[in-house]
Structures are given as structure tokens and as C-alpha cells.
Design a protein that fits this description.
By secondary structure, this protein is α/β, with parallel strands linked by helices. Helix content is about 40%, strand content about 15%. It has one domain: Vaccinia Virus protein VP39 (Rossmann fold), CATH 3.40.50.150. The chain has helices spanning about 20-25, 45-55, 75-85, 95-110, 150-160, 180-190, 215-220, 230-250, 250-255, 260-280, and strands at about 65-70, 90, 115-120, 135, 165-170, 225-230, 280-290, 305. The protein has an 8-stranded mixed sheet with strand order 3-2-1-4-5-7-6-8, sandwiched between helices. Helix 3 (about 75-85) links the parallel strand 1 and strand 2 (about 90). Helix 2 (about 45-55) packs across helix 3 (about 75-85). The two termini are about 15 Å apart.
Length: about 325
């Protein structure tokens, strides 16, 4: 399904693309991250709901709590949290299309007397409320690595003593972050697909000190890592599902976004599917708990555990 490499100037940015373009390949909830395929007859929507449920289950949510969703996308995680756990939810997004979509969804729920929800078009660094729990799914990999300490410090500072931060992010296990290795990876993958899903040339390992891993950034801020779940093979299946759906709607995609953008998304999805299949990339969920909330010591290192392989191929 790979197509010609796009000319970068012909690729529209995510902020420029209309919602309809993403609706061509995402499920009804417009969840734009790795799904969790648990049954042979799973639909994309069911698999996305399973992923969200897995993430929320790590957060120890209680009715009336406030959940902050950093990078809320089109709101699927915060809406599911409100429905399932009776929590209030606030989403943050920098995208104007996503902001308007979530705002309209929440306005409809308010009329029907559902738990409180809000959405802000701002960065996490400008957020000024005190949530009880924080989720960050598919957003951390878009940050420059030098901002990771600020993000984890922000989350630790804003959470209460029993606070939990759930991060799901793409990682590069075992990657040598030397300039030569980083350039080699960029030459093969980013030319093929110019970072339209995530900027692969700056991904970090899940653990380690040289280079520093995600778990170490969280620990340096004061968090204890109580669980790391690996979902890499599930992203292969997710990307294949997206690519097939987009390919089936090729004409409409090109009409909305142009040939260059269509080529970039198809190449990115199919190319990264190979990277997750081979293990060059992985996606992991990190459960980060404030150390003061723990009743017993937690080992300094938590071994990532595999989520069962996708039940569908």
C-alpha cells in the first residue's frame, strides 16, 4: 500500500486538516492512538474503548474526582471517564478543530445533566487547576525531550498526595541516541513519512539513564513507577486498520487534503506498522504514582510486561 514519498511542502499540518479527513480512518470516537485488540471479532471502536478502559483502570478514579486529560484529542478518554466513573473531566488541546468538537460534545452532555466536563485550548504548562488524576495518551512523544522534566514536574506538583499520572507513549527500546544513529533513523523513516503521526527521530527509550528513559524522567520528578504495560503489537494492528480505511476512501482524502498529505499518511501508517512489528518501536503505558501515596516501598525499577498479543491480525 506504500505510495510515492510526498514532497514536504505538499503535506498539510495536523492543525490545517479538517476533522472529516481523520474521520475517514478513525473510529466513531475519533481516538487517535494505539488501540487494544482483545477479541478476534473486535472492531476498531471496540478496541479503542478497551485501550481507554485499560488506561483509566490504572488511575483509581472515584466519583466526583477531577481528571485532567493532557492532549485530549476529540475527547474520547475524558467522555468515557465521565460515563464510567462519574468523574469531572477537563481536556487540553492546542488544535482548534478538536477544541470546538469537544466543546460541542460537552455542551450536549451538560444539557442532559451529566458530570461536569470542560475543554481548554491551551498547553499543560498554563493549566492552573488542581486535578486528582492526570492522563496523557499519545501526546508525550510530540514534546521535545528537553521538556520532559518540566512535564513530569508539572504533573507531580499539581496532583494531590494520592495522585496518579497515566502516560501512554511511543518509545524506542534500546536506541542509541548518538547523532549518527539518530540521522540514520531519520533518513529511513522520516523521509518515507515526515512525522505525520509522531516525530520518530526524537523518541526516547522506556527506561535507562544514558540516554534517560521515560521512567527515569518520572522518577526524577518524585513519582514511583508501579506498572509499565507494553502494547507494541497492538499498534501494528491499529495502524494497519487506519491505513486500510484511508486507502478505501482515497479519493475523498485527496479531495480534502491533497495527494501529498494522503501519501504522507499512508506511508507513515504502513511504515511504522513494520517498525512496531519488528520491535524497533513500542508503545507503553506508565502508571506513575506519587511516592507519598504508597503503603509500601516500590522497587526502583519495574520490568515492562507484555499486554497479550492482538487477538486479530
Amino acid at each position: 500500500m506504500t505510495v510515492d514519498a510526498p514532497v514536504l511542502s505538499e503535506v498539510m499540518s495536523r492543525d490545517e486538516l479538517p476533522d472529516e479527513f481523520f474521520a475517514l480512518f478513525l473510529d466513531r470516537t475519533r481516538t487517535y492512538s494505539c488501540a487494544l485488540w482483545t477479541r478476534p471479532d473486535d472492531t476498531l471502536e471496540r478496541a479503542q474503548s478497551a485501550k481507554i478502559d485499560l488506561a483509566l483502570a490504572q488511575c483509581d478514579l472515584q466519583p466526583g474526582m477531577t481528571l485532567l486529560d493532557v492532549g485530549c484529542g476529540w475527547g474520547s478518554t475524558m467522555l468515557r471517564a465521565m460515563d464510567t466513573y462519574g468523574v469531572n473531566a477537563i481536556g487540553l488541546t492546542g488544535n482548534c478543530h478538536q477544541y470546538r468538537y469537544v466543546r460541542d460534545q460537552l455542551a450536549d452532555r451538560l444539557i442532559r445533566g451529566r458530570p461536569y466536563g470542560g475543554v481548554r485550548r491551551q498547553e499543560w504548562a498554563q493549566f492552573d487547576r488542581r486535578p486528582d488524576r492526570i492522563v496523557c495518551i499519545g501526546t508525550l512523544e510530540h514534546l521535545a525531550p528537553q521538556r520532559y522534566p518540566d512535564f513530569f514536574d508539572f504533573a507531580y506538583r499539581m496532583l494531590p498526595e494520592d495522585g496518579v499520572l497515566l502516560v501512554q507513549t511511543v518509545v524506542a527500546p534500546g536506541r542509541d541516541r548518538s547523532d549518527a544513529q539518530r540521522t540514520e533513523f531519520a533518513d529511513t523513516d522520516l523521509v518515507r513519512a515526515p512525522g505525520v503521526i509522531f516525530p520518530a527521530d526524537r523518541l526516547l527509550p522506556p527506561t535507562g539513564r544514558s540516554p534517560k528513559g521515560i521512567a527515569e524522567y518520572a522518577a526524577d520528578a518524585g513519582f514511583a513507577i508501579t506498572r509499565i504495560g507494553k502494547l507494541g503489537p497492538h499498534y501494528t494492528t491499529t495502524l494497519q486498520s487506519w491505513a486500510c480505511a484511508l486507502h478505501e476512501r482515497r479519493d475523498r482524502a485527496i479531495e480534502l487534503a491533497g495527494q501529498g498529505t494522503y501519501n504522507a499518511y499512508i506511508n507513515s501508517m504502513t511504515g511504522y506498522a513494520d517498525d512496531f512489528r519488528s520491535g524497533h518501536l513500542d508503545v507503553m503505558q506508565f502508571t506513575c504514582t506519587k511516592s507519598t501515596a504508597l503503603q509500601q516501598p516500590v522497587p526502583c525499577s519495574v520490568v515492562p510486561r507484555d499486554i497479550p498479543a492482538p487477538a486479530i491480525t
